[in-house]
Specification:
Layout lengths: L1 E8 L5 E3 L2 H11 L2 E6 L5 E5 H13 L5 H10 L4 E4 L5 E3 L2 H6 L5 E8 L2 E5 H4 L1
Antiparallel strand pairs: 1-7, 2-6, 3-4, 3-5, 4-8, 7-8
């Protein structure tokens, strides 16, 4: 579904324009409803909502008595944010997510099959 690397810019309102080649598929599979969360590698993960739901269910079904599991649950589920593409195909990246991934104006969008990653351009390079 998603592959390749695309250099993009966050606009003045911290919105990211999803490349046109992905918009049609995202509208048909999830009506533009996405989940943005953090990754331990200090990037952001973007999932179509239907692709995220089984991941969240699996994470929440794991024992929270294991400190590593609990940490992963806190990181991924605790930081997950529901976003919706606007009419121009943009998504809003919240301040806490931008801070976590150290995003400024220039970013890189990386296709990873069923999800996308958003990287600070300098970190990616």
């Amino acid at each position: 579904m998603f592959r390749g690397v695309t250099q993009l810019s966050l606009d003045a309102k911290s919105r990211l324009a999803i490349p046109a080649r992905y918009r049609g598929e995202l509208m048909s599979c999830c009506d533009g409803r996405l989940i943005v969360t953090v990754d331990p590698s200090k990037c952001l993960l973007v999932y179509p909502q239907p692709a995220w739901e089984p991941i969240e269910e699996k994470l929440n079904s794991l024992s929270s008595f294991d400190p590593r599991t609990r940490g992963l649950q806190r990181l991924l589920v605790g930081n997950a944010s529901d976003v919706e593409m606007d009419g121009a195909g943009r998504i809003l990246i919240s301040a806490p997510l931008r801070k976590f991934a150290d995003l400024s104006k220039e970013v890189v969008l990386v296709g990873q099959g069923s999800k996308l990653e958003i990287w600070n351009e300098e970190q990616w390079n």
